[in-house]
Amino acid sequence: MQEVNKLKVVIIGGVALGAGAAAKVRRMDETAEIVIIEKGPHVSFANCGLPYYLGGVIPDRNDLLLHTPESLKARFEIDVRTRQEVIAIDRTRKVVSIRNIVTGDIYEETYHKLVLALGAKPLIPPFPGLHLPGIFSVRNVPDVDAIKQFISLYQAKRVVMIGAGFIGLEMAENLRALGLRVTLIEKATQVLPPFDEEMTSRVVDELKRMGITTVLGDGVSSFTGDDRARSVILESGKEVQADVFILGLGVRPDVQLAKDAGLALGVTGALKVNDMMQTSDPDIYAGGDMAEVKYMIDGKMHWIALAGSANKQARIIGMNVCGMHVKFRGALGTSIVRVGAVNIGMTGMTERAAKAAGIPYFVSYNTAGHHASYYPGAHDITIKLIVEQSTGRLIGGEVVGREGVDKRVDVLATAIFGRMTVEDLADLDLAYAPPFSSAKDPVIMAGMAAEHVYDGTVELLNEWPMDPLQFQIVDVRRPDETAKGMLPHAINIPLDELRTRIAELDPQKPTILYCRSGQRSYFAHQILKGHGFTQVQNMSGGYVVAKYLEQAKVNRVAISVR
């Protein structure tokens, strides 16, 4: 018989949130009865590692299984029931109805506290031909097993990856590593739609270098085939033939069970929770991909499906189930992905999001080596900052490069979490030695560049002029650099010659300055201002970002509302 005062916690779903919350409950309460009901065969697996298991980077599937029912029983005294599905929640009786998927038997389980960890479901539109063999989605280990078996069985040579988000790109890279010919299809006009478009230009270049064919701005219409899928028909009418088709169109919160139980949904369509992760029923908690969270930039509720938030929420749910009152402070959507030799990450608001939210802002770009330029192996890293105009507070950042992207994204995320301004960013005390960074880290340099905009020292070029001939456009790079390309209508006056050749410029004519990354053109900006030039603009990010923007077909080089 159950002890009268013994806490009983039933958790629906495993993986990061469910297993994490269960473990935390056990650490808080040694006597609690803890039951996990998991529909799938694995209670705790590394779903973020699935693309790398497919590509053989992780050779042993067991390495993805972080815990088994046996290990959770041995370490945490948790009753784990896999291949069982909760089909109903009776909130009045505090009972869940469970169906054993293997036997079909249905039984009930009581609870004191209930935790919902159902995650998200793949977004799969009802495309004609979707029933054909050879079309897959990826959410768990058996999904990847099925793809691997299909590739082997049919000796597949060609694969179509539909969706160029985080998982889509990781899957495409790993499929290419297997020697398959990969076509990546994305309905949006860019890869990685959560990012600002120009920052993804290097990713597109890297996909080309890897031999991956990319089709952008064209969505799926239908699939065709005979005994299995043979081709995908796009909305443009184009047909792409392949042996395997994988859907990576994103996910949506799995809220049907909660909705059927009468729990409130939020403005995003995900489950509504408070800052202690309680649903509209205070005895039912939820988190992870099925619940919405507070966005730390504007305080509004957003749906942010990321593993980092799920793991933190698991800990908070575990504590609050045991009687504490710990609050989840919110999320920034910090994320990163590797595509071949290029890494790209983001945190906080993109420029597009800030514009949509009506927040007055400005943007600043900076490109620098990821470590000291004189130390062998330095690679460019480009940082884009989105800054609140009225306060100088950092509200977003995006970083792209080959090395050192992760730590810069993490620094920016910490700065946004701490509500730092660009002035604070410029004053950070960061670790330095030649193999790791420069004395002025790229984040500090980015902060300094943005500070110059915020305090009015520098005026950034807002939009590429409709009539460039009305401006004098000056490229201050060296001749060996300009030989590789210049912007239209520009003249070349290297920075070190600017003072002696200043008479070649008209101080009354609007002047646009640019260099490779924005630093030398800033120096030139100050020289011209010191010589009485009154209409001088610096191109943020320089030639590097201008080429990104050109490739992205964005008719601007920076956005500034100052």
From TrEMBL:
Upper lineage is: Bacteria, Bacillati, Bacillota, Bacilli, Bacillales
Concerning InterPro entries, the annotation shows: FAD-bd_OxRdtase (IPR050260), FAD/NAD-bd_sf (IPR036188), FAD/NAD-binding_dom (IPR023753), FAD/NAD-linked_Rdtase_dimer_sf (IPR016156), Pyr_nucl-diS_OxRdtase_dimer (IPR004099), Rhodanese-like_dom (IPR001763), Rhodanese-like_dom_sf (IPR036873)
This protein's UniProt keywords: FAD, Flavoprotein, Oxidoreductase, Redox-active center
Enzyme Commission number, as recorded = 1.8.1.14
Molecular function terms in GO for this entry?
Answer: CoA-disulfide reductase (NADPH) activity
Tell me the Pfam families matching this sequence.
Answer: Pyr_redox_2, Pyr_redox_dim, Rhodanese
Designated name of the protein: Coenzyme A disulfide reductase
Gene3D superfamilies in the record = FAD/NAD(P)-binding domain, Rhodanese-like domain
**Protein family:** Belongs to the class-III pyridine nucleotide-disulfide oxidoreductase family.
